[in-house]
Design goal:
The chain is mainly alpha-helical and 394 residues long. The protein has two domains: 119 residues, 3-Layer(aba) Sandwich (abc type-2 transporter like fold); 215 residues, no CATH class. The chain has 18 helices and five strands. It has a five-stranded mixed β-sheet with strand order 2-1-3-4-5, sandwiched between helices. Helix 6 links the parallel strand 4 and strand 5. The longest helix has 34 residues.
Length: 394
Amino acid sequence: MKNNVMTIFKKEASRIVHDQKLFFSAVIMPGLLMLVMFFLMGNFMGNIGEVDEDHVYQVHAVNMPDSIAAMLGVPDLNMEITTVANAEEARQQVADREIDLLVIFPPNFDAIIAAFDPNGYPPNIEVWSNAARMESATARSIVTGILYGYHQYLTDTWFTVNAATEDAPYGFDLATEADIFGLVMGFMIPMMFIMMIYTGCLSIAPETISGQKERGTLGALLVTPAKRTHMALGKILAISVFALLGAIGSIIGMAFGMPQMMGMELSSLVEFYTLVDVGLLLLVAMSTTLVFVGLLSILSAYAKSVKEANAYATPIMLVVTLTGLGSTILGYVPTEPIFYLIPVFNSSLCISAIINFEVNAVNMVITAGVNLVVTMICALIVAKMFSSEKIVFS
């Protein structure tokens, strides 16, 4: 029995070692991908929750007292004095993420401090921010830190910061429920969405191409008068349609599941997002599906069997997962078009933009165009591979 086991073991081990493609995909590739993934994560994950070091915080102030004006005059803060009449407009700008912060001082703050009555009410400084925007939250920390420092400097007088008032009984945060949902889900949904699309493509593409190679039906199909390019496009489109249907099912599942996880009603999503947002999400899903199907079709055409195709494609899941963390890696949703020239990575950024209500039409068009070009290139490569008897009949 021992000899039989060792004989079979040596035979199978020899087969794996001498099959260079199988050995590389099963033994070498996972380690390389993990090395690259953690190297990239180590370089970029530090950006999560951080603001660009060159960012200048836009802060509007009402009734700015002379005693504090000099303290707030730091390089990172661009202080703009506004009037009480414009305070409501400035509050809306904070809510709309147009400025970072609004600070409202009581009228005659310095005079109140100079004639402070310990038995009266201390003056209250209102610091309005938007917790769903990292720049606003950081600006709030900087300003409140300066104010608390001044508070400690005073010995026989004091004031309060963001004490509850009739206008703001629950605090001075202007982030809405939709903003919080976008902040939390904007990091999770893109990765989950990209992974589900890839998984759907992976379940179909290898069987459609590598499976036909195994059964010998692909060679019979290629002897027909149809052009190789037409065959490649037809297969990519067929696989994409069914993979996209799976992606749509995933969207519906997330639409019903995410609100439950957040303790919200499903109707809230209808209030947050419009049909335009849904259409853009489907556009991104479609273009991403085409890219994945194109790439998996190349791997499937190269592989000898469905098992081998899956062996090549499964480790790529690590790269796909990392790509799905686009905005998380960067720490924000970029608007620079250059980021949207990277296939699949651009899809992740577009999904984050949709979830966070930061849609940029130009970047959406660039993403769809780039992904379509990549798909056409993949189709041409598959067509070229179909023309090779060595690949088709391997």
